[in-house]
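Here is one record:
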Amino acid sequence: MAVSVKLMSLLVGTLGVISFVFGVVAENKKPASGTPIPGKGLVVCKYQSDPTVALGFLSFLFLLASSFAGYLSLFYPYEGKSVPRGAFFKSSSFSAFFNIALFTTGLAITMLVWPTVTEQLHLTRNVHFNLNTACPTAKTGLLGGGAFLSLDSSLLWLVALMLAGNAREDYFDEIAEKGTNVEAVKSSA
């Protein structure tokens, strides 16, 4: 089966939606806080079992896969026709959406990894010597925001893919036009 623009766009979109779903479910399953269990000079925080950390990392991994597929889909030589990267960046709209997609991907990664790692640290470092500890969890809202940015990122990669298709057509039209002009010069000589 040959790789096509439709297949790549389906892959990018599907991976982005899966990342979004995992991120939203991770946000909804995250507990508000743990239960403090006082001891002699310390407090042990007991957290209920929840899939927040696993879902957060899954959301992050699917975001990476979606972004990687989105990036590769832009420069892939479809139908065996390669286009130099510089030809894509001649289009200002492609350049803008490419950079926005990169920025959004980076921001989504930050907003997914930060609370996921923080939550993992809270679960593993659950002994506190401050007797007033309220057994915190990761900041609420970051995973959900990261999930929406993950979806936005995949949509921006799809827009960049459409603009790359336009830049690809312009490049091949320009090559064909130059070839016609060369032949016209040779025939007039």
Remarks:
- The CA atoms of residues 82 and 118 lie 44 Å apart.
- The helical segments are 5-29, 52-75, 85-88, 92-124, 142-188.
- The mean pLDDT is 90.
